[in-house]
UniProtKB/TrEMBL annotation:
It is found in: Cell outer membrane. InterPro entries: OMP_efflux, TolC-like. It comes from Thermus oshimai JL-2. This is Outer membrane protein. One of its GO terms (molecular function) is efflux transmembrane transporter activity.
Amino acid sequence: MARLGVGLLLLLAPALAGALLPLKDHPLKRQAEAGLLAARKALEAQAAPLALNAQGNYARLGYECTPLALCQSLPETAGSLTLSLVLTPFPFGEVADGLERARLALRRAELGYRRALAALQLQAASAHGRHRQALLGVRLAEKGVELSALALEAARKRGAGPKELREAELNLKEAENRLEEARRALALAERAAEGLVDLKAPFPEVPPPKGTTPLSLEEARLVLREAEIALGAAQRALLPTLQGSLLLYPSGNDTWALSLSSKTLQPTLSYTRQDPARPPTAVPNAGSYRTAEELRLSLNLTLSPGLLAALEASEAQKRAAEEALRAAELQAALQEAGLKNALKGAEATLELARLKKASAAKALEEARKRLELGLESPLGVLQAELGLLQAELALVQAEYAVKERLLELYQFYGELLPEVTE
């Protein structure tokens, strides 16, 4: 199990390369890692093949004796020390339940790790995309200021009326305000990306997901398995418990014991040293004897309405988990279809945005050629440049919309980005 956890972390490490490198120190990732480590250690503790227990007792004794001199021969204190070794040759009963619950907890922690990192990847893509859009927004606003300033200058040169000049001045003021707003949006986008993504590095390509089992189904299956374990425990609670012990008394001070219970089938070997020693049992007018060995068998059976009610509750809980799994399957299928449909829509928008950018680039090229021939004004060229910037902004928005739709599918499946070679 330790190798499984290490292998999982090594598998996830490549996703943090390049632009996603800041995620390695993100608090949510560290929290998920700590939960994964805790679950793995809990499983190791549950799967330990043996346990050693030590128990000590001390008592101070007081007597009332007849005759009084008898008290002087009695011990003033009594003590004992017991060392027990509990072995688990194979998991059974309650031990098997505890081990299976620990495995389920580890699996739940692994799913939580995948969910956390998949969500961070999506946030990183959104932050990277917003920053790219904010950069283009600033360039677009700067071009708007340049265009408004040129329009105002042209109006002044041709002697435009006061109203037209006022409108041109207001347009320039509005363009300057949009530029300031765009710069503030850029600063906010940079701040929002801190700890999520390296804005200087290109965001990695996002291939289509493999389409594994959705996280919601994985979690629903874990809930069903937990309900099955609880039902098995409730059923065993109605069965009798058989306890067997073999005790050896090599001396009055020493006791060796080997015991076994049908609830766990864990053999327990213990040694007890006590002081004072057990005195022999006196038989009047015949002598005394000391027990050298002892075999004990006990049978315990508890029947109560509470146990039957607990069994019914466990059966109902299992049925509820089964229905929840079926509901999760239906919901997952619907959600998967919706996410894939959204991805197709984003891809269609991206293709259209590419065509619009190509058209805007062609329009700018034609405007510059007309300017060289004297058939176009500098204002017309600026308008074409502004149109190209708008098309580039729409293209960036479409590109990151596709990345986000893909990463939403990654989050749905709990998949992570593969290693990126830059």
